[in-house]
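seq as requested:
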Amino acid sequence: MKNILLVLVLFISCSFTPERIVRGKIVKVSDGDTVTLLTKENEQIKIRLDGIDAPENGQDYGEKSRQFLADLIAGKEVELHVTGTDRYKRTLGFIYINGKNVNEALVRNGLAWHYKHFNNDPKLDSLEQLARKEKLNIWSQKNPIEPYEFRKAKKNNQKKSSDNTQVKKNTTPATLCGARTKNGSTCKRKVSGGGYCWQHSK
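struct tokens:
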């Protein structure tokens, strides 16, 4: 019996990871879910607010979401509860100011989606449902586009634009040389990019 209890205690101890808490001042608000925190040790930490996805810059309500977050925490001392790191090496976490959960505040005010692709927090989900019901900000639109879809569409448009530019570069129309030959006629060799042909460009 004692051995079983010992194994259980060891298992619980190994599986439990204490939450890392970092305190500092918010020195930059990039958008509605990305900020930079400066610690007392002068370390700058780029933070992606966990569990939420705010409208992008250039997207409807993107600036309002960023301004809401800036009004709430810019230049102020906050507490960051670290939850991990995303694929861009940004620190993931929940930010608290005076005991208030900032991530939740954005969702509750209709200025961020609950990021269900990567998070299944039932509280964030219920806060989003309340904001939807009250048609707050992004939910006042008939068919709001999720930031995830907005980013994907923007990326595809940039790729198409790049492909079209490459096609144009590779399809420069050919012109005729036009140089006068020794017998007085006009050279009709085709030349790409203008100018004279190889024989008359010397």
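The two ends are 98 Å apart (CA to CA).
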